[in-house]
């Protein structure tokens, strides 16, 4: 037996009583007994499928039954059940959605959506009314752009300022070989419109920055994060929290990926998961660490699925759950993601109320905003003290100078390409292999692009090596300026 | 029709202006005798965890307390109010999806910090539409 408190508007169905006693061993039993006794209550509390209406919360004494076993929560004599509507709202989502109609051509095109009861004409109209911003048209952005266009999203914004490169083609399936050298945003737009000319595509050919992010994002309902670096990821997160826009997140590395939805209806944000960025250089990007080309397809499509679900308002959104994918084990795992009450961005006492300098926050230098360099042409790199240009290195070799050339890349990279006469000492082994070298020797160090070798130079200098120089631009520059037969990767 | 007496109305407008540029929310207590009359307004905390300029959320326990307060005064909980800062008093998609058909929902439009206009809405069971209710204040 339990006492059920009846909210005011429902007392007309219980003969004006403000509480009713009903029997049952579980919450489900009590509610069923209650609605058997007062049949008019049934429609108020349950939907046509017999499930609790979405706005009805049931409290057993002080606890929401969702957290104590739902319908199966056991009821003791003397317990009190309360029916409490969940009420929220806000002006966030623009008023009455503008009247959207589907042409006969569109009805034919979307027929396989329209015949799913959960989508139907109404759902397809929601997709058409939706405005989605894709940040990045690379590995994740490629499948996202293709499928979201095909699905009939009304307006898709693209943010990218990069140009298509040969190394992109292994995974960024929205770009073709003929597009190499073209702005990615143009190449992506062309493919998306070829699939579905009904989509309105807005090109934002800029780097997303603290200055422009709010202005760009405010015109969209959903933001899909397809970026590959920490400063932009934090920027997208913070802007989404500030503007109340769901942030559909994905990230990839080698054989593993993750995805979740941040900043949805007050759910956790990226900073709840990662309050601080990792130290610069600890987590390699795809360019540094490599990525299985298929992986962004899987993760990008999980993001696309979540986007479509949120727009349609169906299913269980990936909110408060971090989905982890391991391609080698072919396993999905899920971690619970809780909102951090102390989160500086979305917690109770927020300390961040506007966008900050994300490059400084992540400890990485602000990339130069120079116009993209055409393929095959490299920016003139300046040679500073402690550095050596590849041409000078070549002259040094040709002269037969007595010096040591150290390659600090990994063995699998060495197998792809190497500079003749170099000795392989992967960066991680440098500190323990210092005694292999003479402190007074003339030492030149290189890697792929000059980043890792700069770190190795610093280690050697700290350990008393007198003559250490870093090869500017690494083996990539060697291939460009000295020996084109050395492949670039 | 819903009529809001002058004292509760003044308190609601003051609450909405005070919360500006954030949204405020609260409960309306009164009597239903054919028409609805709001006699008392009760400001409640906006419990929305994100940015409150465009969102509000009521805690279920606060709503339970409002219902109890109404019982104690021999009144009923008859409606919920909230504000839309710098935005018209329409019933938004967010409002609709998080509403309930049991109450009147009064929305106050606050423009540049000052009261501008208000509407009352009656959402349907499926939370797909809300009918405008005549509002007198």
Question: Would you give an account of this structure?
Answer:
The complex is a heterodimer of chains A (489) and B (137). Chain A has 489 residues and is α/β, with parallel strands linked by helices. Chain A has 3 domains: 2-85, Roll (Ubiquitin-like (UB roll)); 104-361, NAD(P)-binding Rossmann-like Domain (Rossmann fold); 387-481, Oxidized Rhodanese, domain 1 (3-Layer(aba) Sandwich), CATH 3.40.250.10. Chain A is built from 17 helices and 19 strands. In chain A, strands 9-8-7-10-11-12-13-14 form an 8-stranded mixed beta sheet, sandwiched between helices. In chain A, helix 6 (141-151) packs parallel to helix 7 (184-195). Chain B is 23% helix and 42% strand. Chain B is of the alpha/beta class and 137 residues long. Chain B is globular and about 35 Å long. Chain B is built from 3 helices and 9 strands; from the N terminus they run E-H-E-E-E-H-E-H-E-E-E-E. At the A-B interface, strand 3, strand 5, strand 6 and helix 9 of A face strand 4, helix 2, strand 5 and helix 3 of B. Strand 6 (88-89) of chain A pairs antiparallel with strand 4 of chain B, so a sheet runs across the interface.
